[in-house]
Amino acid sequence: MRVLRRFDPWRSPICTCPPKYSLHPYTGCSHFCLYCYASSYIGRRYSRPKDNFIKKLERDLKLADRHLPIVLSTSSDPYPPLENELKLTRETVKVLLERGFKVIIVSKSDLMVRDIDVFRLGRVTVSITITTLDSKLSKLIEPNAPEPSRRIEAIRRLSKHGIPVSVRIDPVIYGLNDDPSELRELVDTIVDAGALHVVTSTYKVKLDNLARMSASFPDLASKWRKLYFREGERMYGYRYLKKELRMKLLTPVVKEASRLGVTYATCREGLLTKEFFDSSSCDGSHLLY
Q: How many C-beta neighbours within 10 Å does residue 85 have?
């Protein structure tokens, strides 16, 4: 069974990611974010390590193209609480860098600062997801993830040690974390901490994540159903807000990023004009070069 695979998000034509590999040392995700899309196909369970992962990875790397970066991870966090003891992701990154591969880390955890010494062995960029600076809201929608202030501090420490950082402001959720002034403040804060690139995207509905969101925010449930099912559109397995509303929600993020002089992009939104996409890559992989 292969553990290293070409990243191909269901062959979605609106995915703008450059060619790369996807790698998951763990299955499941302990963060239990309400808006998670991956739970619709991998279920909702705590992170657990894959069996014989390093041995399988070393086998796969013999046939892999070193020109392509490897992202950890696209549907599970590579730094769950269990990683603090197991150090499986740390060992994985070390193996990849020793063999000359470039690595993209995507995580909501600040635990990765532990591995700065490993990151400095090769080409690594880190992408940290921060959806809000409001710790109370973050605790509701991302119950087991580190609070935003810890993630901001991780940006500072990584940047201080020369590790290029991008931030995913994703998802922007209508009625929850979409206040324009708060989004601009979030961009200001992450750029001040050292972020070089910003990726943003709106909340995309799957039936299971909408059920969780509606149960936690019943006052918004009927509005979300109206916006997504009556006024929105279905694209590539997800329910989207109508384009005009998505543009409105994301504009504060991209305008502030532009004002501050960092690169920015939108993720799976189909918004490819310079106003919404001004970068050579959406995922921050350009920071590797």
A: 7
Q: Tell me how many domains the chain contains.
A: 1
172, 254 Cβ separation under 8 angstroms: no
Instruction: Note whether residue 240 is domain-resident.
Output: no
Q: Concatenated DSSP letters for 172-214?
A: E-TTTS--HHHHHHHHHHHHHHT--EEEEEE--B-HHHHHHHH
Question: DSSP of 103-142, one letter per residue?
Answer: EEEEES-SGGGGGHHHHTTS-EEEEEE---S-HHHHHHHS
Token pair belonging to 155: 């940006």
**Amino acid symbol at 52:** N
Q: What is the pLDDT of residues 241-281, one digit of tens each?
A: 999 999 999 999 999 999 999 999 999 999 999 999 999 99
* 141 located within any domain: yes
- Is the Cβ–Cβ distance between 25 and 78 less than 8 Å? yes
Please say whether the dihedral angle defined by the alpha carbons of residues 153, 156, 162 and 165, taken in this order, is positive or negative.
positive
Radius of gyration of the chain (CA): 18
CATH number at residue 12: 3.20.20.70
**Mean of per-residue pLDDT scores for the chain:** 96
What element of type H or E holds 21? strand 21-23
Q: Is 103 inside a domain boundary?
A: yes
User: Could you read off the pLDDT of 77-99 as tens digits, one per residue?
Assistant: 999 999 999 999 999 999 999 99
Q: How many CA atoms lie within 13 A of 63 on its CB side?
A: 9
Cα separation, 107 vs 77, in Å, equals 5
Stated pTM of the model: 0.96
Supply the range of the domain harboring residue 142: 4-205+247-288
